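ok here's SmpA / OmlA family protein:
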Amino acid sequence: MYRNTTNLTRLRAVAGALVLGFSASAAAETVEVPVGSQGMVAEASSLRGLDKDQVTARLGEPVGIQGPVGDPAISRWEYADYYVYFEWDKVLHVVSKPRG
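and the structure:
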């Protein structure tokens, strides 16, 4: 009787692992946005590496500024359609605002 209980326990463990494995793979989703449909962010990505004065000269004054926070100092400038992230004085990333 002990052997049957051990086999049943193992069977349940394997079944549980399979269910978790299938549910994890079913939940994964890849979202790809073609470069052409990114609009202004694709153009603004040429800002990477520029300093804050150069960004202001190209894009004008931001709608809002957050930060700097942390070390290295990270700040975010908000424009109408995207955010520009800086590390110290240099552009790290340009990110499109969510639309919805």
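+1. The beta strands are 64-69, 74-78, 82-87, 90-96.
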